[in-house]
User: Fold this.
Amino acid sequence: MSTEEGAKAIAERKIVTFTLRKQLFGIEMSSLLEIREWEDPTPLPSVPSFVKGVANLRGSVIPIVGLSERLGWEPSELHSRSCVLVVAIGSRHAGFLVDEVVDIVSINPDEIQPAPDAEVNDASAIAGLVKIERRTTEAGQDEAMCLLLELDALGLARQLPELVA
Amino acid sequence: MSDEFDEIQGIFFEECSEGLAVAEEGLSAMASGDVSPDVIAGVFRAVHSIKGGSGAFGHNALLGFSHRFENVLDGVRAGRIEPTDDICQVLLNAFDILSDHVAAAQSGSEPPADDDMLHRLDMILEGPSAGAAPAPAAPAPAPEPASDEFGFVPVAAQVEDFDPFGFEPVAVAIDDLVPAPEPAGWMVRFAPSRGAMANGSEPLLVVRELESMGARITGVDREKLPSLAELDPEESYLVWDLALPASVEEQDIRDCFDFVAPDSKVDIEKEEAVVVPSADVLPFDLPTLGAAEPVALETIAAPAEASPTVVALDLPKGSEAAKPAAKAKAQGGGESGQTIRVDLSKLDQLLNLVGELVIRGSILSDRLSPADQERVELPELSRLTRQIQDNVMSLRAQPIRQAFSRVPRMLRDLMAETGKKVILETTGETTEVDKGVIEKIGDPLTHMIRNAVDHGIESAEERLAAGKPEEGTIYLSAEQKGARIIVRIRDDGRGINRARVLAKAVERGIVPAEASLSDEEIDALICAPGFSTAETISNISGRGVGMDVVRSNVEALGGRLEITSVPGEGTTFTMALPLTLAILDGMIVRLAEQRFVLPLTNVIETVQPEPGQVQATSPSTEVIELRGKYLPVRRVGEMFGMGSSRPPEESLVIIVENESSGHVGLMVDTIDNRREVVIKSLEDNLHPIRGLGGATILGDGAIALILDIDALVSANGVGGKYAVKGMAA
Assistant:
């Protein structure tokens, strides 16, 4: 391996891609703990509607979040390929409901473009845009825009004062 | 640096906080008049070990400060400094700065400004003999030893980083014994073992510590240094000669070598330039030094006209025998129960597993026929499981003193800020509580104390005018009552000004203007979100996120907060907290087919209502008639927006007791069974939710939410601000 290739391998980041409303999204591979099938979680009172409830992840209680709603879109419709990405955000764990998991791809950080502001309600949740190649060429399209999510911005921890107010 | 280093450093900071706690306790005892030698020695030892560790980890600011602090404490210990009230106050303040230093070293932030405090400490040290000529500052670094290729230049420069230490004559006991000593000094020869660096006893740090006391390197023996080709950079080949001023105490020099690898060679010798002490006035007590006879080592080229008294500290191999005197002293000869440090998460895991075991046990028992349940193996098994559980719980139990210990410091700061005088009286510090509870009551406690000082205790003039003693008192107590810990914070201040509280609450729209509230209800208003009566925002309290946060925190712990106040006599905050956060005895109830856990602690009875027994008093409120009394009923399902449409006759009403609201009925669909559940917190991965005390995992793997009775019962209480919002799904 030449030094140039070596440097490139180090610089590349692996992301997991998935879809929400046909749109391609990506999160850092390193944050992903596991992918689970959708199971109805236990609903909670007094939480925003995007928190679908809590589920049992090997003995700990984790919130299940409708990612589509969290990003300001219509709730995902459940179907056979719906699944939950269990991710680590800091020391906390959460499950995100997504429409379909697509692939694991490597991207070059240099090719990430900043996200335009008005894209979603919570613009800070989009870390950037990147063009990735699709392995299956659907409708003749072999490249697609992928929205990289900033997991920290999707964190669910709320400070107490906000909660009781 | 490496993880291992971080880990060791982590242990150092843990020991620091333990040391600080000991020191503070001792200093507080001194301030209140107990100046027995044991107490003083305890404080000295605590500060001394902080100093030792800080040197080893290169926290120079902390090292410098703790060293000067220790000097004064040493003076007090030796009886040279009278521990008067004033001096104890200074020591307490110095302690506060020491805590800040430790915190700064731990967080890597800027060390606190300590010049003023150092000056005050020096004033004490100089004491009555302050007129004595100030000792010369530490000698300038020696002319460049011919060894600069080993990088001693930056080391020497480090001396400048230290405040020049004041080597006042008063610190030197030898002066009393040796007539007219000329400025001479100590010769130290330090030959680190070859493997010293592998053992973590970096010689550079020792040399630096010595330099911080005014040492200069007078020579380096490079004889053992191999050629570059053979040199192993991880081995230590050099032998250093250092000279220290005579004003340094030998013990201090030896302390620098506390943590040096056992097979390193350390020789400390006193060089008397002029006066040779006669045998019976040896400047120090030889037998205590470990090595029986003074042995002059040939390797030391004795200075020409000196008559050296050499003490060879040839540390024995094997760590049991190492640092014998110092270590034994550091332990204070006190009982040294064998203890180990265990990562808290391991205990948590163990507790979790035992909890699951208990639950499986009760499931198993449920599935067996009654005859089989009585078989001897099963009760025996559950008895053993119980015992394991109790034992694991006791491992996590800690005296509540840990939570109380931060209060004195805070009070001192508050007194300085407000100019009020406050005495703290604590009782029941030894009450043992689960570690998790201790960690979480710290903030509420802090806030309540702040409130008590800021709003409760009056100014000295106001107190005198009211016929009270000038100094206010805050009583902090803890006691165990059944499965709860009661923590009380009582002040003897002015009490809650109800008229003002009510006016403020109306002004802020928390209650309607025409509301007529009982005294208790008004007192409870101070916990309403967004309520703050402070006329001006002080930096102590009055930011408006005060008591409501306290209350949420306490409730998130499964506890209750109560306020009682007598105008003119003071206010009492009572926190009733669960002993453990881990396990709960509960009823599994159903609401719209979802299972919930209702804690049994407050349950009085369960009622199957007859038709007409539950009646509406308004579109949204109902009462149940029970033996001639009407009790309010809350439909839990509706509060959670689950739309329980069952008629009362097909529901069950569970009567619960609540200290603020009395008896209240909670309407649920059915009751499944009674079970012990392991509490899983929601805030680990989400955040606390009002109305819920957490969640648990049932035998079939499903999650059941644990109801928080107090929050549910008070949900329609004062102001309706606490109404539980609807269920999400």
Q: What stands out?
A: Strands of chain A lie at 13-20, 23-28, 32-37, 51-57, 60-66, 83-89, 92-98, 100-107, 126-138, 141-149. The radius of gyration of chain A is 17 Å. Chain A has one domain: 3-164.
